[in-house]
Amino acid sequence: GSEMCIRDSSDYIVIDLYTAAAVSCYKYGDSFYTASGSFISSDFYNSNKDRFEKISPPFDEKEVKSALKEYAKIVLSKYDKDKIILVRLKFSNICVKENQLRNGKNRNALNKRLRQYEDYLISLLQPVVIDVSGNYFMASKSDNMMSFEPLFYDDVRIKLNSAVKRIRKDTYFSAPEIRPVSYTHLRAHETR
């Protein structure tokens, strides 16, 4: 099983820990399955429904560290540390909807959990880190979907390109490349 994590022979691996920190899963024996809509509608799930145990975040810290340690071992067996890129995530409590700023859900507990998981994985992998999400608001597309405003993805793309092409020798990218004009005034009023 654990070799299934990384199937292809890509040059780089880009990691974020959103699913590990925020999404429920089902345990079946020693295996864990993400509690996605497609998994729940699968024949495998439906024919074994009574054998699954649903587990929701926050997860047991020892189990998470053990899983991250095993994951790191697999990643390091396939990639040099300069070919491993971690995109850190920090979710704002403010979201953008149709060019308006709105109060969103409080994400402090999720952000704290993400930071702990990311710090631990960084200590194991020493990857290239892209840490810009704190500069951006959430996008309000639907209530159950976590996404950032589009400028976040543009910024990450620019930093990924820099890391892959070795334009900069940095291993930690945190300054925003893109300075949004439309939200600049509004950002000054954001409370943290």
What features would you describe in this structure?
The protein is α/β, with parallel strands linked by helices and 192 residues long. Helices cover 36% and strands 17% of the residues. It contains seven helices and ten strands. It has helices spanning 18-22, 37-40, 43-47, 61-78, 108-125, 150-165, 184-187; strands at 13-15, 25-28, 31-34, 53-55, 84-87, 94-97, 100-103, 128-130, 138-139, 172-173. Strands 1-5-8-10 form a four-stranded parallel β-sheet, with helices on both faces. It has a three-stranded antiparallel β-sheet with strand order 3-2-4, with no helix packed on it. The radius of gyration is 18 Å and the shape is globular.
Compact description:
The protein is an alpha/beta fold and 192 residues long. Helix content is 36%, strand content 17%. β6 and β7 (100-103) form a beta hairpin.
Mean pLDDT: 84
| Distance between the ends | 42 Å
The topology string of helices and strands comes to EHEEHHEHEEEHEEHEH
Give the overall silhouette: globular
Radius of gyration: 18 Å
